[in-house]
Structures are given as C-alpha cells and as structure tokens.
Amino acid sequence: MPVSAGRVITSESGGSGRERLAPMEAVRIARKVTDNLRDGLTGPRAQSAVRALRRLLRADAVALADLSGRMEQAGRMSGADEAVGAVGEVLRTEGRRGRPPLVALPLRREEELAGVLVVCGEVRMSEVRHAAEWVEDSLERVRLESSAEQAARSELRALRAEISPHFVYNALTVIGSLVRSDPDRSHELMLDFAEFIRYGLARDREYTTVSDEFHAVETYLALQRAVLGQRLRVRIRVAPDVLAVPLPYLVLQPLVENAVRHGVEPAFGADPRRTGLVQVSGEAAEGDLVAVVEDDGAGMDPALAERILSGDTTDNGLGLSNVDRRLRAAYGSWYGLVLETAEGAGTRVTVRIPLSQPGVVPR
Q1: 12, exposed or middle or buried, with CB in 10 Å at 0-12, 13-18, 19+?
Q2: 3-class SS shares of the chain: helix, strand, coil, % to 5
Q3: pLDDT tens for residues 48-92?
C-alpha cells in the first residue's frame, strides 16, 4: 500500500514532553502496524500492532478491540474499567467516546463497524484520528488481499471444473472402440484418462512443478491424438534444467486445451486429410521460465484476443483469462500471458514465471 503524506503520523513534542519521531521511523512503525494486523484486530500479531501504535503516538497505553469487546493492549491503562466501558459504548453507539487522556474511536471497514481503538495519555486528538484512519486502511488492505486470494482460488476451482464433456465423451468412445480390436492400446488410454482426471481434479495443491504440468500436457495430448488421429500432430520440448521449477497448478494444460479446442479442431478437425500442429516448450531465459504453447490453427482477431485476456468476453476464453489473472496475481503484471494471433494464422501463447521463488513449495 503506498504511504501518502496524509497518513504518515509523527508525534510532535508538546506539553507532555513527547519527542518527535523521525519521519522515516514513523513510516517504518506505521508499516509494521499494517503487517501485524493481517490476522485482524485480535489476531496472533495484534499485540505487536498495539505496541507499534503506542510507540507511534507516544501514548501511555493503546488498545484494539474487536466486535466482541476482546482487547489487545500495550502499556498501562489508567482507569481500566472506564476503558472497558468506553469500548462497550462505542460498540453500542458506533460513535466516539471521551477525549484525551482517554478516548475510544470506532474503526470501520467498508462503512461497517469493525472494532475500537482506545488511546490513553496526553495525545492530540488529531493524531488519534490519524491513527484510527491508518488502522482502518490496514484492515481494508487485508480485506482486499484476502479477496484477491479468494478470487484466485475460485478461478482455480473453475479450471478444475472445466473438463469438457465433449472431450470426455469422445475419449471414452475411442477407448471403448479399442477394447476388442486393440486391448493393450485401450488399456493404455484408459490409464491416461484416469491420470488426466486425477490431475485435473486434484484438490490439495496450488503449485506444482514443470515436470508434473508437462506430464499432464502429454497425457491430455495423447488422449486428443487418440480422438483426432492423424489430424493432430504434437511436438513437446522441455529443458531438463527447468523440470523442478514450481509454477501455479493448471497453468499450461488449459492453454494446450485451448490450442486444440479453439485452434486445431475448428481448422482441421472436420477434414481427415489435413493436420494441425500443437507445440509446447519450456526453457530458462533471463532468470525466468519461459513456456510457449503454439498452434497453427484457426487463430483469432487480435482485438478479440485482447478482450478475452481482459475478461470482457466469454468467447473461447475462460482458460486464457483465468490463467492470465492468476499469473499476474501471483507474480505481478510482468508475468501475465503474452498472446500473439491473427485470423487463420494460429496462436502463440507465452508464459513467464520466475525461476527463483522463495517460500514456494510444490506438492
């Protein structure tokens, strides 16, 4: 969250003899407050947050209370019973209670009451209000980050659920047709189908490895080749030194599925004499994993591709827009999808993921 001048709180010297905080020290402490409120007003790190607020305000004591009235306190609160009563009054009326040296202010998030800030000591009322605003900003940041994480998980669930019934029907039909004429091939494809379903519906992972994702791609393409026969050609190339690199689960497989369903099949699927090519590659370049999914199929209008990535249309695009948003949420805007296409000229999708990702452990 950018720190604006209106939100930086400095404690100036006054009648209480409080020393002025250096501006950068005040900013550092304010950021510490934000970090320690990630789990809420009475979470595991709330005690660190109230200690930081007390230091920021040079107050005798500071407390944060949640909607239940439970308080986290730093410093010695003179008139403890009065402070508890003030918290109860703020929770009941949603208005301020008292003035320095003991004041309790409501804290709001999305216009709704979220808790109470209590400050004890000779602190200027303007500073107390600024502190309350900072806490509210911190709570809003936590809410937005949580919403982004929930959205990413929802999009991942959407990808897991997007197994094409048409593809499933065709794959099982082909497998069934080979039971008598080529039982070994039928058995092999059935194992591939089971592996594809198992990977696509896995519930316990947000990250995987390049090795596992490319294996899922190979399984999917093996099934599609059984369905489309010679109409689909496949070329897969991955550098051994990137196989262990972690990446978000279900990033490449939806792009490959998009290349087959919306690239090769519309262009070549109806003519057994024509063939389409899907190429998938992965290698290290300039500190990143660079993966490319390319087809020589139908392609699309670049303007439509832009709308798909921005989420402005549902045409052919759930997999692409979904993956793009998840990559940007995980790594920043530099790591979104790059899509190159034109009508009748195929589609090339490039994915960049940092090779070094501290703290990410694929399952």
Answers
A1: exposed
A2: 50, 20, 30
A3: 888 888 988 889 999 999 888 888 889 988 777 888 899 999 999
Task: Say what the alpha-carbon torsion angle 108, 110, 113, 114 is, to the nearest 10 degrees.
Answer: -70
Tokens of 169: 């029907």
Global pTM value: 0.55
Give the bridge partners for 356, in sequence order: none
**Residue 201 backbone class (left: φ over 0; alpha: ψ -120 to 50; beta: rest):** alpha
Do residues 219 and 195 touch, judged by C-beta distance below 8 A? yes
Whole-number CA gyration radius for the chain: 29
Going through the chain in order, the beta strands assigned E by DSSP cover: 61-65, 71-75, 97-99, 102-109, 112-120, 207-209, 232-238, 246-248, 276-285, 288-295, 338-341, 347-354
Residue the block writes with tokens 């003030």: 86
CA atoms within 13 A on the CB side of 326: 25
User: What are 170's two structure tokens?
Assistant: 């065709």
Taking alpha carbons only, the member of 172, 169, 153, 150 closest to residue 161 is 153
Q: What angle do CA 207, 211, 212 make, to 5 degrees?
A: 55
